[in-house]
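Regression test case RT-17, inverse folding.

Input:
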């Protein structure tokens, strides 16, 4: 058992608001061992939010004028420091969030990739030049920063998601305030320590810990916040979207998925099996891109289900820090109960549990929040487990008899984040690419595994039309200005006459 990390807010270049054990403090615990306190962190209030917003507003005036290539050099340095600290961060993440070490390393690696990719944008941030209607005039567009950005992030990717948001925001000339999830304050603190070590000027990046409904809400409602970038649940996303609408803020929402993997009768079944196991049970199913529906052609369903059962039966549960395990814990008691409730709902609505379905309590598992990897059969498309995001190690099997039926069922949800089709038929592959309603489609690959230089986000209720990562992140964190330069020395005739 290690000593808890004492986390503080980072405001205007200073570590502030030391939490006391007695009051105004919260703790994060190891989800594989609830007796282990990983971190103690402040329960920030409105005064902390006001201080962070004031610092970010003040810093914005000079940061936006730092040349973009120079802003990018700080982010490049963050990437180098993340690389140097990768193992330490991954170990901490495994303890605080529970994901297996290999996955935690992948999470940090996404942050590193994002740093180097975003830093490259500092030397691009391309605008356009375009002909003017006048002879002695130039016309062009430039990207302008938006201002002070609130970044509200979940616990499932405690390094990657804050990096996806903060890095492009800073390269574009904005200043930021991060409000991380209550479950992962230590990861956020270590990440911001790295940003601070890269020498960013005071106020450019700020960290405020606390409760979503207090600190997060205060940030979203604050009149001096210009943009909110949010990843999390549909319910909180709806509040964030509505509040930003009422207070005229820019807003970018990413609210999860109900992702499906289709396996057709001509698929390479071993390949599809790897995809299904990793997609459904990787990160204990706690990914917005997780495979929560397996749409199986009736000709291969029985064989594939048996293969899946055998693999699932051999998965080992345990602490993410133990290199011999496959599946870590669920993040907290509330999420554990939520997953359990969905199993009860599935049963009530007529689904059959082929394997799993219970909270796992064998041996040391009793000390953590473990749930057995679960396969639900005889699921019909209108059941709640086929429509709602569960965010746990649960996958629903749905049988289909044609490719058209598979695509129709895949599309039949309110979400539209990730999707996958396993087939050897090129015509089906291209039809899937065209007809699937999702922001991401994989052919012969699992629904998870996004790369940072491609747009990330979804259609329908997954989001509000924005895409993180890739060059599309620049569209979130900048606004266009059209610039006309008249070098005629007089008001041009056509302009007065409206060209007539
Ligand atoms: N799309 C995705 O990647 C994710 C989706 N989810 C979905 O959400 C479900 C619930 O998970 P949960 O962690 O509660 O998700 P939330 O949406 O509640 O949390 C996401 C972030 O929003 C903050 N927050 C909560 N309430 C407010 C508020 N009123 N105003 C501003 N910020 C707020 C949270 O802070 P705090 O942690 O302090 O509550 C956290 O930082 C999961 O079961 C899953 O379905 C969850 C995580 C990631
Ligand atoms: O699995 C992926 O491709 C990325 C997942 C992710 O970012 C998320 O679940 O929030």
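Golden output:
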């Amino acid at each position: 058992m290690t000593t808890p990390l004492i986390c503080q807010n980072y405001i205007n270049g200073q570590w502030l608001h030391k939490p006391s054990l007695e009051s105004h403090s919260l703790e994060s615990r190891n989800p594989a061992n609830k007796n282990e306190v990983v971190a103690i962190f402040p329960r920030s209030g409105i005064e902390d939010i006001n201080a962070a917003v004031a610092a970010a507003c003040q810093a914005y005036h000079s940061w936006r004028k730092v040349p973009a290539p120079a802003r990018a050099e700080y982010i490049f340095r963050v990437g180098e420091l993340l690389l140097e600290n990768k193992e330490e961060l991954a170990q901490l993440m495994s303890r605080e969030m529970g994901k297996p070490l290999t996955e935690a390393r992948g999470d940090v690696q996404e942050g590193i990739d994002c740093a180097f990719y975003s830093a490259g944008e500092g030397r691009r941030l391309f605008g356009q030049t375009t002909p003017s209607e006048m002879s002695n005039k130039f016309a062009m567009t430039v990207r302008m920063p938006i201002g002070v950005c609130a970044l509200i992030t979940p616990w499932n990717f405690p390094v990657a998601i804050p990096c996806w948001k903060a890095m492009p925001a800073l390269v574009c000339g904005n200043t930021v305030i991060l409000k991380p999830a209550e479950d992962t304050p230590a990861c956020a603190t270590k990440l911001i320590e790295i940003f601070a070590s890269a020498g960013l000027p005071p106020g450019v990046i700020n960290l405020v810990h606390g409760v979503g409904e207090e600190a997060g809400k205060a940030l979203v409602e604050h009149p001096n916040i210009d943009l909110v970038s949010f990843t999390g649940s549909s319910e909180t996303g709806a509040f964030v979207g509505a509040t930003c609408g009422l207070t005229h803020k820019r807003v970018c929402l990413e609210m999860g998925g109900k992702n499906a993997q289709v396996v057709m009768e001509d698929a390479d079944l071993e390949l599809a099996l790897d995809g299904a196991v990793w997609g459904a049970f990787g990160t204990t199913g706690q990914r917005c891109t997780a495979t929560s529906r397996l749409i199986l052609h009736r000709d291969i369903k029985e064989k594939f289900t048996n293969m899946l059962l055998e693999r699932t039966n051999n998965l080992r549960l345990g602490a993410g820090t133990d290199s011999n395990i496959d599946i870590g814990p669920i993040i907290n008691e509330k999420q554990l109960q939520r997953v359990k409730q969905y199993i009860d709902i599935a049963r009530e609505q007529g689904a059959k549990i082929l394997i799993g379905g219970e909270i796992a309590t064998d041996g040391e598992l009793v000390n953590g929040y473990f749930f057995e990897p679960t396969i639900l059969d005889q699921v019909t498309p209108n059941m709640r487990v086929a429509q709602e995001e569960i965010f746990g190690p649960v996958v629903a099997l749905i049988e289909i008899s044609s490719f058209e039926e598979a695509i129709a069922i895949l599309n039949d949800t309110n979400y539209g984040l990730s999707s996958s089709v396993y087939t050897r038929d090129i015509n089906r592959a291209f039809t899937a690419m065209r007809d699937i309603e999702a922001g991401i489609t994989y052919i012969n690959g699992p629904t998870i595994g996004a790369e940072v230089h491609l747009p990330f986000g979804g259609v329908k209720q997954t989001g509000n039309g924005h895409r993180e990562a890739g060059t599309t992140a620049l569209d979130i964190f900048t606004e266009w200005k059209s610039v006309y330069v008249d070098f005629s020395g007089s008001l041009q005739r056509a302009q007065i006459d409206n060209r007539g």
